[in-house]
Write the structure tokens for this entry.
Amino acid sequence: MTGNGRVVETELRVRYSETDRMGIVYHGAYVSWFEVARTEYCRAAGFPYRRMEDSGLLILVTRVECVYRRPARYDDRVLVRARVTELASRGLAFAYDVLDENGRRLADGASRHVFADVKGRPARAPEEVLEVLERFRGA
Amino acid sequence: MTGNGRVVETELRVRYSETDRMGIVYHGAYVSWFEVARTEYCRAAGFPYRRMEDSGLLILVTRVECVYRRPARYDDRVLVRARVTELASRGLAFAYDVLDENGRRLADGASRHVFADVKGRPARAPEEVLEVLERFRGA
Amino acid sequence: MTGNGRVVETELRVRYSETDRMGIVYHGAYVSWFEVARTEYCRAAGFPYRRMEDSGLLILVTRVECVYRRPARYDDRVLVRARVTELASRGLAFAYDVLDENGRRLADGASRHVFADVKGRPARAPEEVLEVLERFRGA
Amino acid sequence: MTGNGRVVETELRVRYSETDRMGIVYHGAYVSWFEVARTEYCRAAGFPYRRMEDSGLLILVTRVECVYRRPARYDDRVLVRARVTELASRGLAFAYDVLDENGRRLADGASRHVFADVKGRPARAPEEVLEVLERFRGA
């Protein structure tokens, strides 16, 4: 995760349901971990995503990627670090690092998003939301 | 699966994502297989569940159970047999059998449901729906 | 959850991936929450399940059931209470309650399990494991 | 999906469990669809992946990405087209297109993989496997 800006950390415990027959975490699980990390990022910024959504502002995923470096296993504690890498009235982007308990990197990734209204049409985020996110993001 | 009435069969291929570190299908996956079988049952009966839902009639799950007899593995072809065991204006119940390619039983289960409106409040199913389901169910 | 015996509580935050198009938590997600609660129960008892499994003692699920009472939603904090209701050398049983932040019951359920060796064959749990679980369970 | 080479198509029906509270398919589900498409690709090529794995040759995911263009919904039939874009003794890469029933693109993506032995260590694929895949891939 290059660059700078506020990082929000979320700790997760690997669930049995997240493992696969290879004995390690199924690679698709990381995508939902990124989503958990975004939820915690928005909460930390003062805009819980559920509240955004209830107020009619959706954040759609337009792209996600993940690079796998080391496997995680059942019951491991993993740390997901999330950071906003781009922020505009039309959308935003996040970068993620997934670390094990010893700080070794298990995976990293990124996602891109557009703001949308309740019907899923592209929308501009209210100034208030952008200002709060921008201030929180710092850097 | 005791009793009688029309049985609708759905064939599935076990996905890698459905396995767990024990090397077999994660037990929670069967619950979503039951749901796939209900979807196919309603389609076979002439009332695709998506159409029901789009017309404002929801079918909520109020209870589910599953008994596991033999493990299923990645890439196995499994057959889910579904049957309506109860049908009333307030709700209905299904029974399921999950079989392997040789007809051996892997699991069986049951689910109970209530009809609801789009706000999730208990509702009576329209006569038309009940009649079609009753006729399809036969027995 | 009737009866008595030590209860272990696990708090979870509902993930976006756990919701479905009805806007509530997908019913199958509760089954994996029960599993998370079992993991925490074993850890609290002094026998982390991963360690059990690594030592060659598996706990297979032979039956699971869940009764749904109220929906849970994205980002809700839910509490899963787990308790051992039966314990024998061949297997054990758990009961669960899922509560919302106000203590209202969202769901309850139960699961049955048999001990097995690494090849999945029925096995007796070592005396040491049974004694520790029995003492922890109390009642 | 640019470039050429044999394309293997897999048809899927969207499951209720794959939707989220936005009313559309959860973005993480596409990652497991890619995996289903890889399974079918290997089967079509004459090397069912399960057989590869049982013979000691694992294919680890080292990178996955997905670009989302249009939402898919519950009960939609979707077509996943998979193609091998790189093939070497150390690993391979796939590209994917996800189409709706009218041939409109819903998403596209790619994944990279390394061959590994049963302990997860990097390995070279046997010549036989590479030759069969290369011939199948054609182009």
About this structure: Chain B touches chain D at residues 13, 15-17, 32, 35-36, 39, 48-50, 53, 73-75 (CB under 8 Å). The first helix of chain B runs from residue 29 to 44. Residues 70 and 106 of chain B are 5 Å apart (CA to CA).
